[in-house]
């Protein structure tokens, strides 16, 4: 077994390679607090990753934000709620939003994070200008978050709003009007009226809307002639 003195003599690059093999992000967070050298090793290992998923891990604001800050090359971030429960709050989203990688993210999943509000989502989204895919289903967001997305995410292609029961037709219309590259939107479990689906397709006839295909059988042929 390698003793503490021996592992301290390992080069940073080799230490970083060892940390890349660790799949538990809570263990990585703890390792980064052992000493300065270990913190640097964790930082280098995280900097090599383009995708991070905390799904399945019980993470809190501090440990999540610390690891995301190290991930300079990150493109995809998944902090969906796990079966163990997720402790991420608006405070955590604010800290994550300060990470250098946020402006380069193309995919974010906040699925099922019930402890966040429009305030935290707005802060995070305001810096995610390269975002193409967003899953925010199962949260309590309102139209305020949709307005923030519309203002900050011109490259958005897909969005999941599954069971977001506080979003309304007004927010959806602003979103689709502003995000002209939007290809797909999941509205399962929302409370928007049927007329809203028609209005969205009027703005963007090629838009794929769930559950339109299964429940409403709405397509471009039903749109008003202009």
Automatic annotation (TrEMBL):
Recorded superkingdom: Eukaryota
Domain F-box: 7-40
InterPro entries xref list: F-box-like_dom_sf, F-box_dom, FBXL15_LRR, Leu-rich_rpt_Cys-con_subtyp, LRR_dom_sf
Cellular compartments per GO CC: SCF ubiquitin ligase complex
Pfam families, A to Z: DUF7885 (PF25372), F-box-like (PF12937)
Residues of the F-box/LRR-repeat protein 15-like leucin rich repeat domain: 96-177
Biological process, per Gene Ontology: SCF-dependent proteasomal ubiquitin-dependent protein catabolic process
SMART domains with a match to the protein in the record: LRR_CC (SM00367)
Protein name (record): F-box domain-containing protein
Organism expressing this protein natively: Prunus dulcis
Organism ancestry: Eukaryota, Viridiplantae, Streptophyta, Embryophyta, Tracheophyta
